[in-house]
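Late entry, written up from scratch paper. The run itself happened at the end of the previous shift, but nothing got recorded in the book at the time, so transcribing now.
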Amino acid sequence: MLEATATERLVSRDRFVVGAALAAVVLVTAWYTIGFARWMAGMNMTVSMPWTVSNTFLLVVMWLAMMVAMMVPSAAPMVLLYARHVRRRRETFGLYVPAAAFLAGYVVLWLGFAALAVGLQWLLDTAGVLSPMMVVTHPWAAAGTLAIAGAYQLTPAKDACLSRCRSPVHFLADHWRSGITGAFHMGLVHGVYCVGCCWALMLVLFVGGVMNLTVILALALFVITEKYLPFGRALSRIAGLGTIAASGAIITKAVLA
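Output as recorded:
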């Protein structure tokens, strides 16, 4: 009984430390994202930034910070549950290093997404359909982007990835690996499911505004809702249909204009 009580105290302490670390990561990246958005708004640019190596790197960092700020809150239950399992299994490497490795693996996948998002941004900018404030300006491009985002919400791939994200216990049971490299691998796998679940939703940023803080916050809250509330799957499908309807409305307006 005394040993069990001591273990529970350690688990409670671990939850606080890991939770505080996750909160710090989110706050720092959110601070950076807000600062970048305000900087762009203050610049009031009329032409896009030149695609130099330094500017491209800056955009990748911006996208990564934004993705971490948006997605880590929804991954927090998984990381906390992982930390609890590490404590109970009494891993030889302790707790905090494996938890950090798990998070690092998760972030690596979003780094890859950030690089792809910048690549898409370059394509849109080169095609002349993206404003200097990173908003798609051509109605057909905006409609197509929303149609892709909405249609993916209704696919089996979306359902499969979302079901994995909605069930941390089953994920850990199916993918458990011990040690630091095992933790990093598990973070990578969870990142695959998370990116697979949410990549299309992030396309909405190009229509609502990549640096539109209201859109960023709305998407972050939506991701948490669809992952963890009982009606999350239904909400995901409703959002998909709504996004497709918005795409149709843009096309209709463009045709009638």
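Residues 213 and 226 are 20 Å apart (CA to CA).
(Scratch paper discarded after transcription.)
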